[in-house]
Amino acid sequence: MTNVAVQEDVDLTDPSLIEGFPGVGLVGKIAADHLVGEFDMTHHANVYCDSLPKVAVYRDGDAELQPPVRIYADADHDLLVLQSDVPVGPEAAEQLAACLAGWYDDSSVTPIYLSGIPEEKEDAPPALYGLGVGSGVDAVSEAGIDAPDEAGLVSGPTGVLLSDAVETGRTAVGLVVESDPRFPDPEAARVLIKDGIEPLTGVDVPVDHLVERTEQIRQAKERLAKRMQDAGEESTQARPIGMYQ
User: Domain 2-240 falls in which CATH fold?
Assistant: First the structure.
């Protein structure tokens, strides 16, 4: 069984979808979780795939169980967020790509995929790079997001979804930000939001709360970050491959 099961209808036009699979520095997940909370987004749909982990998740102070991969929506900003509370392996991501393809077309969705590239922390803000498929290339350029300064690849579930976009020619955008490979990195997630998601979507996202809660977020995400370090190919990440191999 592979499907997107709508829980609550939301009136959207040509929405952007922000993908938030766990990966290096948990940057995608932190950014996605922040958007859902900041805009009090509606739980729009659940994503079911046979190869996704068969688990149910629950929240602090909330007795309702939910599937681990969900889609949230905000009609005011014409925005969707794909939120995942579990690592997703490449096999599951392949089914997920097939599942989402038809839904993307039916809902006129433009996906924005997020990934971190391991980089030890320095005083300078993390660098952000933009990638694209189809008209996503123009979107990145028009948003003023730099292209990568070296050859590389994106792996994990985000890499599978981007690979599917390349194979099918479906418009997609990829954002890659330098991220701490050892710890949850709210600062890199902030850069993703302010320098990537904002100019691509035209949505102003307050991040003061994200910056103020940096230590709290790190503590809350520490266990998942350790799991992602051990997850290997299940962890979304970008990495350089060099000119010659």
Answer: Rossmann fold (3.40.50)
